[in-house]
TrEMBL record:
<keyword id="KW-0406">Ion transport</keyword>
<feature type="transmembrane region" description="Helical">
    <location>
        <begin position="14"/>
        <end position="33"/>
    </location>
</feature>
<keyword id="KW-0812">Transmembrane</keyword>
<keyword id="KW-1003">Cell membrane</keyword>
<keyword id="KW-0472">Membrane</keyword>
<dbReference type="GO" id="GO:0005886">
    <property type="term" value="C:plasma membrane"/>
</dbReference>
<keyword id="KW-1133">Transmembrane helix</keyword>
<dbReference type="GO" id="GO:0034220">
    <property type="term" value="P:monoatomic ion transmembrane transport"/>
</dbReference>
<dbReference type="InterPro" id="IPR000990">
    <property type="entry name" value="Innexin"/>
</dbReference>
<feature type="transmembrane region" description="Helical">
    <location>
        <begin position="111"/>
        <end position="130"/>
    </location>
</feature>
<keyword id="KW-0813">Transport</keyword>
<feature type="transmembrane region" description="Helical">
    <location>
        <begin position="212"/>
        <end position="235"/>
    </location>
</feature>
<keyword id="KW-0407">Ion channel</keyword>
<feature type="transmembrane region" description="Helical">
    <location>
        <begin position="88"/>
        <end position="105"/>
    </location>
</feature>
<protein>
    <submittedName>
        <fullName>Uncharacterized protein</fullName>
    </submittedName>
</protein>
<dbReference type="Pfam" id="PF00876">
    <property type="entry name" value="Innexin"/>
</dbReference>
Length: 236
């Protein structure tokens, strides 16, 4: 087998293996780490805070009041929950199929051409799935490394608010505490009778974005490598 062809197949296989690792890591994250981390009142014990996190994970979350409309319009408002898992799996599966196509083509130049088109189709598919420009998003995130841009372009919402109905069995508020809460300027939570508004960081979204960024790097490198090999195969 041609060494150049073998190297092409190796690059694509490495990218496909990377896809499998990403899918597994995203699927296991909620099981081995907190999928979201809510800022609990200081009077909550660790067990109570864990209960609040579990409660909010199973409920619909809303935008925090501190998020401006301009910022809200600039991010994809997607809550990563159980219903989003299949979308990620299908997205990565389609990308893997597109990268496998060149291995069923025999002419060398056609293999590289198919690989380049497969990479382009993978980017277009991720644009459709994530409802944003995947290529621009990845480039913007890497630009932040040297530009120190404070405004991050997220494809998944990083922070949400949860209306937590506190069980009276583990948290009671006397008159003095109630007055303190009403006048509190603590941005971590607000008190409304028996409902707390907790600010929750979606750690699973941050992890998922990191995995998609790794995928972006893999697709870019695979596309550039196969395009270079295509040019060499055509003009040699």
């Amino acid at each position: 087998m041609d060494k150049s062809l073998l190297s092409c197949m190796t690059v694509n296989k490495i990218t496909i293996s990377l896809l499998i690792v990403l899918v597994v890591s995203i699927a296991l994250f909620p099981l081995v780490w907190k999928p979201l981390d809510c800022k609990c009142p200081t009077k909550f014990s660790e067990e109570n805070c864990q209960y609040a996190n579990a409660y909010c994970w199973t409920r619909d979350l809303r935008d925090t009041d501190s998020v401006g409309q301009a910022w809200r319009d600039s991010v994809e408002n997607v809550q990563f929950g159980q219903e989003f898992g299949p979308r990620v799996f299908v997205s990565f599966f389609v990308v893997a199929v597109l990268l496998l196509l060149p291995h069923y083509i025999k002419p060398e130049s056609t293999i590289y051409l198919t690989a380049v088109f497969g990479t382009i189709l993978a980017f277009l598919w991720l644009d459709f799935t994530l409802q944003t420009s995947f290529a621009k998003w990845g480039w913007h995130r890497f630009q932040q490394i040297w530009t120190h841009d404070s405004k991050t372009w997220h494809i998944f919402t990083q922070e949400k608010a949860c209306n937590f109905k506190e069980p009276a069995v583990f948290y009671t508020v006397n008159a003095e505490d109630h007055e303190h809460t009403e006048n509190s300027e603590d941005p971590e939570y607000t008190k409304n009778v028996d409902v707390l508004t907790l600010q929750c960081a979606l750690t699973v979204n941050a992890w998922s974005e990191g995995m998609f960024l790794v995928l972006w790097v893999g697709l870019v490198l695979s596309g550039l490598f196969n395009f270079r090999k295509l040019v060499i195969a055509v003009f040699k």
